[in-house]
Amino acid sequence: MALDFAVTQGTALAQGSSTAFPWLSTAILFPIAAALLIPFVPDKGDGKQVRWFALGVTLITFLITVGGYLNGYDPSVATLQMAERWTWLPELGLAWSVGADGLSMPLILLTSFITSLAALAAWPVTFKPRLFYFLLLAMDGGQIAVFAVQDMLLFFLAWELELLPVYLLLAIWGGKKRQYAATKFILYTAGSSLFILIVGLAMAFYGGTTSFEYADLMAKGFSTKFQLLAYAGLLIAFGVKLPIVPLHTWLPDAHGEATAPVHMLLAGILLKMGGYALLRFNVQLLPEGHAQFAPLLVVLGVVNIIYAALTSFAQRNLKRKIAYSSISHMGFVLIGIGSFSDLGTSGAMLQMISHGLIGASLFFLVGATYDRTHTLQLDEMGGVGQKMRKMFALWTICSLASLALPGMSGFVSELMVFVGFVTSEAYALSFRIVMAVLAAVGVILTPIYLLSMLREIFFGKENAELVAHSNLVDAEPREIYVISCLLVPIVGIGLYPRIMTDSYRASIEALVQRENGAVTRLIHPSPNDLIRRPSLAMLPSSALLQAPALG
After folding, report:
1. Quick one: DSSP state of residue 502?
2. For residue 233, how many other CB atoms are within 10 A of its CB?
3. For residue 295, which of 418, 431, 420, 417 has the smallest C-alpha distance?
4. How far is Cα of residue 144 from the mean position of the Cα atoms in its chain?
5. pTM summary value
C-alpha cells in the first residue's frame, strides 16, 4: 500500500486553511499508539504507573487539540480547515482525509477535555487497570476521529472503533447486570451502524463516480427520492446514538451498570456523536431530504423532552434518573436541528457542548455518591447532607446547571433553541406554538425531579443504618477538582456564550443557508428541477413550510 503524503485542501468545495503540522492526525493516532504501549509500562499490579501514564497521554492529547485550535483554526472561516490527506487506495477512491470546521472543532475539544477528566475519575480502578486504560485511550482517538475524518468510509470505521471499548468497559467493569447492558448496547449500536455502511456505499457509488469524501458527496446531485431513503436510514443509525425515543432503551441500561468514567464518556461524548452526524450527513449532505424530515425531527424532539422527563420523574434508581434526564435534554438538539434558523441550529450545537459538560459532571457525582453509600435507590438514601456538605454543594451546583439556571450554559443553549424555533418563519405559526408549549412542559418538569432528587439524597428521611455504618466521607480534592474543571466552562459559557458560539457561527450560518436553499427549491422548483426530479411538485411535508418566508 503506497502512501502519497500531501497536506491538501481536498476539492475546491472544501477549501480552507491548512497547516504544516498534522494536528488532527496526531490527536487521533497519538492516544491509540500510546494505548499499544501500555503492556510495556512497568507496573507492580496495582495500576499506579499505568494510570499516571494514561492521564499524561490524555492531557497531551487535549493540549494537541488546543494547539490545533489556536494555530490552525480560524473561527470566521466556514469551510474545511486543518485539512490533511493521504492517498490510501486510489483505485477505490479511498484516502485518509481529516479536517475541521465549526461543526467538528468544538466537539473535538470537548472529546479530549472530557476524556482527560475521565482518566482522572478512573483513579480508583484497580481491577485489570492495563486493559481499562488501554480501552480508554483507544476510545479517545476513535472519538476524535469520528468528528475529524472527512471520508464516509473512515467515519464508519471510526464509528465502529468506539463500540468495542464501550462494550468491554460495560461488560467487565459494570454492575450486576453488566452483561445484559453491554449486549443490549452492542446489538443496538452495531445493528444500526449497518445503515451507515449501506447509505455510505450508495452515496459513494451514486452517479457513476466513486468517492467517499464529504466534499465530493456534497457536489453530487442526489435525487430527492434517494435523499429521502438515505435520510431515513441515517436517522435510524444516528437516532440510536443520540438517542431518539423509541430507539433509546439501551441508554438507561448502559448507564445503570457503568462506572463513573464510563458514564462521563457516554453522556459527555457518545451521545454527541449522534447529533454531530445528523448535522454533518442528514443536513449538510442531504439538504432536500432534511427539508422533508425536519418537521418530524421537531416532533421527535418534543417527544424526547416530555417522555424522558416524565420517566425520569418516576425513576427511583439514581443512575437511571439522570440517564432519562440526558435523553430529555437531547430533545432540544433535535428541535434546534429542525428549526431552519441560525439561532436554533446554533443553540442545538451549544446544547450538545453544554450537556456534554453537565452530563459528565452529574454522572461523576453519581459514581462518587455510590462509592460512599453503596446504593443507587433513592428510598435507601437520606440524611447524609450533614456528613457530606461539600458533596451536597457540588450536587446542587451541577443540578442547577442541568435545570437551566440563568448564568449556566444550559440556560443559554435551551433559550437559543426555543427562540430560534419560535421565530423561524419556515413553519406555520400554529405548529410553532403547539411544539413550543409542549416542550415547555419538559422544562417545567426538570427542576421538579432534580430538586426533589437532591432533597431525597441529602435531606430525606434518615437511613440510620446508612448513616451509622457507611463510610460517608466528604468530597475529596480529586473529586472537587474534576467538578471544578467542568464548572468553569459551564459558568463561562453561561455568562458569555460567544466564547463558544463564535467558534462555529460561520459554519452554522453556511449550513442553514444550504438547508434553506433546499427548502426553496422544493417549494418553488425551477423548470430544470422539475425535469430532473418530477416528484418535487408533490411534497408531503411542505405544508408545514411557508414559501414566502424562504422564497
Report:
1. T
2. 19
3. 431
4. 11
5. 0.90
